[in-house]
Specification:
By secondary structure, this protein is α+β, with helices and mostly antiparallel strands. It has 2 domains: 158 residues, no CATH class; 183 residues, Schlafen, AAA domain (Methyltransferase, Cobalt-precorrin-4 Transmethylase, Domain 2), CATH 3.30.950. It contains 13 helices and 15 strands. A 5-stranded mixed sheet has the order 3-8-11-7-4, with helices on both faces. It has a two-stranded antiparallel ribbon with strand order 1-2. Strands 5-6 form a two-stranded antiparallel ribbon. Strand 9 and strand 10 form a beta hairpin. The longest helix is centred in the middle third of the chain and has 31 residues.
């Protein structure tokens, strides 16, 4: 199947939306000749396409509820046929093929089953980011925060997303605090208390202590904890402390870096992991400090709760599949899609 045939088949697909989003459409979209107060959004599918774009920009991918709790749109190819809306939507989708999980170069040689799976993944990609955007818009509307102007959509993007030049992006990095005496003492107290809802210990950032080699599972463990704190009430991750409260320090990680400045390499590596798997928006919620405990340096990661909405983790071990974590008791758990919706409604709305 060539690219044009692939597009033609995709245009026959009918994305779904959660029935719980109907109040958003009723309040914000035009329907026929009826104009809403927020008439800038136009027809239902135009609002849906805007929500998809917004969901992408704020990095909020929200799974749909079970099929019986959703409704279908018309085929994508029938959305506002005389405009460039559909082409714009498809351009965004096709430019993110790596995240969706397909390669243009392999398209023509795909078996039918793989083609159908790819098409299904694309529709799910549209549905989940649109659902994330609709959730955000709905919350802003209920809190009377939507700027009712002719540039409503552009205003939302400008206010709640990040368009930066390279110099500005280079400046947005993890904030490193000085390990003053108060921080050192509070760190000792947290270690003595042990792991709980607000505190988690990890022996290393990246090195598996059994194999003595870097292991992505170690990295994912730290990132899941950070995401869980952000989606809950915040907390502190201690790297270089065992589950039994033994102070191990960061030497196990330091030896895995080749450059001389091991501390700098550790900071850069953690910084890059957060950017790649949690997104730039996570930086504002994370603070690092490197206190010395029992003559060994550890990494203390203080995480504030995310007030603006959910944080999704791209799981490196599962083709960057996005997962949602929360903190419960003394552990970090992943929620099922149906649980995510209920949790977000209770936690942020």
């Amino acid at each position: 199947m060539d690219a044009q045939e692939f597009k033609s088949v995709l245009l026959l697909k009918r994305p779904r939306y959660a029935n719980s989003r109907k109040p958003v459409f009723e309040a914000l979209a035009n329907k026929g000749n009826r104009k809403s107060e927020f008439s800038q959004f136009g027809p239902l599918y135009e609002l849906y396409a805007y929500a998809f774009t917004l969901g992408l920009k704020i990095k909020t991918r929200l799974p749909l509820p079970p099929r019986e709790a959703t409704s279908d749109f018309l085929e994508i190819g029938k959305w506002k046929r005389d405009s460039t809306l559909v082409d714009f939507l498809l351009m965004i989708v096709f430019s993110n093929c790596q995240e969706i999980g397909f390669d243009w170069n392999e398209l023509e040689d795909m078996e039918e089953a793989d083609l159908q799976k790819t098409l299904s993944n694309i529709v799910t990609y549209i549905e989940e980011y649109a659902n994330g955007g609709l959730e955000f818009i709905h919350r802003e509307f209920k809190e009377n925060k939507l700027p009712n102007s002719h540039y409503l959509f552009a205003d939302l993007l400008a206010e709640h997303t990040s368009f930066r030049d390279n110099a500005e992006e280079e400046r947005e990095r993890l904030i490193i605090e000085d390990p003053n005496s108060d921080i050192v003492e509070s760190t000792r107290i947290l270690i003595r208390k042990g792991e709980n809802t607000d505190t988690e210990f990890k022996s290393t950032l990246r090195v598996n202590l059994f194999t003595k080699k870097p292991d992505s599972e170690m990295e994912m463990g730290c990132l899941k904890t950070i995401a869980g704190f952000m989606n809950s009430k915040g907390g502190t991750l201690m790297i270089g402390i065992s589950d039994s409260k033994e102070v191990l320090g960061l030497e196990n990680d330091f030896v895995s870096f080749s450059k001389p400045d091991k501390m700098d390499e550790f900071q850069k590596h953690l910084d890059n992991l957060i950017e790649k798997y949690l997104g730039n928006a996570a930086y504002s919620s994370v603070r690092l400090v490197f206190p010395e405990i029992e003559e060994m340096v550890i990494c203390r990661v203080d995480v504030k709760p995310k007030k603006s909405g959910p944080t999704w983790l791209k799981n490196k071990g599962k083709n960057n599949e996005e997962e949602f974590y929360i903190r419960r008791a003394a552990s970090t758990i992943k929620l099922k899609p149906s649980e995510v919706i209920r949790y977000q409604e209770d936690h942020w709305n």
